[in-house]
Amino acid sequence: MGSTPPVMVNAEALDALVANVFQAAGCDGPESRRISSHLVDANLAGHDSHGVVRVPRYVEWLEAGYVLKGQTADVVTDGGSFAVIDGKWGFGQTVAPQAVDFGIKRAVENGVCITALRNAGHIGRVGAYAEQAMEAGLISIHFVNVAGSILVAPFGGVERRFSTNPVSIGVPLPGRPILLDFATSLVAEGKVLVASSGGKALPEGALIEADGRLSTDPHTLYGPYDTLGPRDVSKGTGAIRAFGEHKGSGLAFMCEMLAGCLTAGGTSGPVSERTRIANGMLSIFISPKHFGTQVEFERMGLIYADWVSETRPADSAAPVLLPGEPEATRRAERLADGVPLPQDTWANIIGTAKRLGVNSAI
Ligand code: NAD
To answer: Looking at the structure, do residues 27 and 171 belong to the same domain, yes or no?
Structure first.
């Protein structure tokens, strides 16, 4: 996060400011509030790379026509328990919840539903959609790709072939929702950006040079850059590595198959003619009630979750956590203390607000 201390911003006030920015940029009230609360919630969860840092870029995409306001996703194929849904380049925070809502309704009726969403604007933190399904009592699994973006080398390779292709799984144990949500790249691109500005260093082997040497140097991804200048991923000759060696790389590949090919929304390559980047998302919704195992699922699930939590930790100061617990802790802290934003992130948001005639009362 750099050497200067972050600005601490109250989450509610930040939400209101960001909603005003999107309204000033032309979105209607509900869409503005949806985008804003999604981004602020990503910050609350501790996933700053998918939070309000994106505001200036989202506004630029809207102004450039890369993402469209007020879209309603189209159901292209309706197979009852499955559907192909076209987001028509709408804001991800609008069309992805629509697709998820469709999947939830059908799974609540039929027990399962699979939705194949394509051409969605950036959908942000994928865990938000698993949370939407958990609120309806459903398990859900989400495979996501980023059509038109290449950042990540497959295992054994030195050239970029994947994007950061996230996966999320939500399991609604009563009073103890379990949420797995991560990118299949070893680090998010946002973390390389932070490291390039003097922030937290990258973990060993996060990047790979074109000649096969492992690297933690952001120049591997961005090429030459000025300290305060922009970063351009097309300028670097190296790549981010997939997490988990061949296993994470295989999962990233499958995200392309499921979210890019099966949805027909497109993959990260080869050469793409697209002028804009879009998320595809293959989602599976499962209703434990329909399986007739709801009682056992919940009883066994809770016992098992406790058992795993009680594992003797390697470091007594760091207890074993379940997926979703770090985010829940971070959310409670940030709701109480405010959202820490690096000075330049905050300045960029305020700059975008001012340009659109929005005054910050913060
Ligand atoms: P990450 O590396 O922080 O991993 C997060 C996951 O690991 C969570 O499920 C969390 O609960 C779990 N976790 C973290 N620390 C843990 C611990 N100590 N013990 C047990 N579990 C732990 O996440 P990431 O890969 O940096 O992804 C960040 C966000 O970026 C995600 O919300 C993802 O959906 C989003 N993303 C979106 C896109 C897109 O195109 N829309 C692309 C990439 C990533």
So the answer is: no
